[in-house]
Design brief:
mainly beta, Neuraminidase, globular, B-propeller_Phytase
Length: 340
């Protein structure tokens, strides 16, 4: 009976995807060596057509064969901007104009390195490490479960009023409360320091928490409590740790994974969330988080996704949506094709 139930679930997922028209990508990237996971987009303000898509490759367990691969907008790997020799790199994010000192600002890439229990921070586009080799996270995690200290999801928040930059980090497993840690990135003589500012966030215990996304303009953190739903909190630590919403769980076949935020002016826009088990994406309104529709973008078992609404040249005049595909690559869609 159990096998029949699983088979029925698989057939239902396939049927669900086939009922939706497939939106073909503009570009499929070159393949990474092992196992793609999560993308991040860096926009070149001086020349948008020279923007970079970063994509993590998790590699094999406990082996230094993981990396963050840089791709151009044609989907070609840029070796000089790629970072390799990592152990179990999971998720990545980009932020702009981090203050290093009174006269120096830099764009940054931050990512989790689960195999070394740390996060890494590099300047972009010159890809210089700013972290002295990495910042250990969840150091005070209680219990003997090693997964309580293994970082997975990561996102960054820049407070529009203060200019402070934070990283929000999730882990492979953890307690029902205070599953996420938030660190402020502060400039120093050697680069940056990471200072723990709060612990927050509920966890159902059903599977894990990996996908994290921050709406800088509206000041919210969203994260995927897999097989439970999407949780919402304030991004500013000074506004407290109250959970603002838990939504969307009924719209997912299995895991709710990657989250991208299409932030239009005036609070308009959408959350785009991977419905991993159904190989589709669910859209929710940015203002009230109600469900809108599902999309079939051709990917399978998508972990991470990211979006920018800024024009990136003639191939992506309306912005770029990037999603991970389980064939060791990433799909690029012009935002207009999504019908947002």
């Amino acid at each position: 009976m159990k096998k029949l139930a699983v088979l029925g679930s698989i057939l239902m997922m396939v049927a669900c995807k086939e009922q939706l028209p497939e939106i073909k990508p503009v570009v499929i990237t070159e393949k990474t060596p092992n196992d793609t996971d999560d993308p991040a987009i860096w926009i070149n303000r001086k020349n948008p057509e020279q923007s970079i898509v970063f994509g993590t490759d998790k590699g094999q367990q406990d082996q230094p064969d993981s990396g963050v691969y840089a791709f151009d907008l044609d989907g070609k790997i840029l070796p000089e901007q790629s970072i390799t020799g990592l152990i179990r790199c999971n998720n990545a994010d980009v932020e702009y104009d981090l203050k290093i000192n009174d006269s120096t600002y830099t764009d940054i890439l931050a990512f989790t390195e689960r195999g070394r229990n740390q996060i890494r921070v590099f300047s972009v586009p010159d890809m210089k490490p700013l972290d002295g080799g990495g910042f250990q996270v969840f150091e005070d995690a209680e219990g003997t479960n090693p997964e309580f200290k293994q970082p997975m999801g990561i996102s960054m928040y820049k407070n529009p009023q203060t200019g402070k930059v934070y990283v929000i980090v999730g882990r492979k497993s953890g307690p029902p409360e205070n599953y996420l840690y938030q660190y402020e990135l502060v400039g120093s003589t050697s680069g940056v320091e990471a200072r723990l500012v709060r612990k927050f966030g509920k966890f159902s215990g059903k599977k894990e928490i990996e996908a994290i996304a921050v709406d800088d303009a509206l000041g919210y953190i969203y994260y995927g409590d897999e097989q439970e739903g999407i949780r919402k909190y304030y991004a500013d630590p000074e506004k407290g740790n109250e959970e603002l919403a838990l939504f969307g769980g009924e719209h997912f076949t299995d895991d709710n994974e990657g989250i991208a935020i299409a932030a239009y002016p005036g609070g308009e826009g959408y959350l785009i969330v991977s419905n991993q088990g159904a190989h589709t994406f669910n859209l929710f309104r940015r203002d009230d988080n109600t469900f809108v529709k599902a999309l079939n973008l051709g990917t399978t078992s998508t972990d991470g996704c990211e979006i920018t609404l800024e024009p990136l040249g003639p191939r992506f005049p309306n912005g770029l949506f990037v999603s991970m595909n389980d064939a060791r690559d990433f799909f690029y869609h012009d935002v207009n094709a999504l019908g947002l």
